[in-house]
Backbone:
């Protein structure tokens, strides 16, 4: 059922997100973990379903242009 | 950045919460700790295409679409004294594939598989980092067909 996410293109599927995790971040794991390094945020838990061990994640890279647009609009309003 | 479902009321037609009703807790993973740094919210931006749909009545939870939102905080969240926060970047290209890469998922979810019912509004106090392998649609298609 979790793969109902297939009907949308803007999701990432991954293992082991569970109920209550919704909204949690999905961070890329670097080969050499360094606390000071800037992390890469891939998405958020959109649905976590325990029984199947899969979760559906919002795929942030699909929303780059929306993010940029919101930022631009906000900054334009600020400078007015 | 956050999921749109975090700033909308699922019991009230996904109505957006008022910015004044939301506080962001920084620098801790324990929501019950007394030593919290809180920051208010100036504005919430929800993706205009955000909605939740019920594909199948057997699904316990509706399926969120375009589950993404941005929050403008009232104050700085980086470089505060005694508050540990860190920057994260969003992938700059949607062409990069992360299939097979390892990732962390962070949340307050249920970690006990035998505990199927979580009380609404009660979060597990400690964040869990599950180590996971990202494995995109092929595996998910498999899980549909075996269901």
Residues:
């Amino acid at each position: 059922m979790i793969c109902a996410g297939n009907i949308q293109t803007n999701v990432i599927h991954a293992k082991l997100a569970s109920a209550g995790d919704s909204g949690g971040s999905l961070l890329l794991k670097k080969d050499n973990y360094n606390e000071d390094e800037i992390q890469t945020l891939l998405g958020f838990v959109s649905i976590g379903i325990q029984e199947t061990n899969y979760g559906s994640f919002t795929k942030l890279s699909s929303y780059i242009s929306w993010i940029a647009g919101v930022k631009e609009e906000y900054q334009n309003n600020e400078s007015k | 950045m956050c999921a749109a479902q975090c700033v909308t009321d699922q019991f009230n037609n996904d109505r957006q919460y008022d910015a004044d009703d939301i506080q962001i807790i920084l620098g801790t993973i324990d929501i019950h700790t007394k030593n919290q740094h809180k920051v208010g919210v100036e504005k919430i931006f929800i993706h205009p295409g955000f909605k939740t749909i019920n594909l199948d009545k057997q699904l316990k939870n509706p399926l969120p679409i375009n589950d993404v939102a941005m929050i403008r905080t009232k104050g700085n969240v980086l470089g505060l004294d005694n508050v540990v926060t860190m920057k994260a970047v969003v992938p700059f290209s949607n062409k990069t594939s992360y299939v097979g890469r390892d990732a962390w998922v962070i949340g307050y979810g249920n970690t006990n598989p035998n505990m199927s019912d979580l009380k609404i509004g009660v979060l597990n106090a400690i964040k869990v980092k599950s180590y996971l392998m990202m494995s995109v649609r092929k595996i998910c298609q498999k899980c549909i067909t075996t269901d």
The mean pLDDT of chain B is 70. The longest strand of chain B covers residues 37-46. The longest helix of chain B spans residues 137-145.
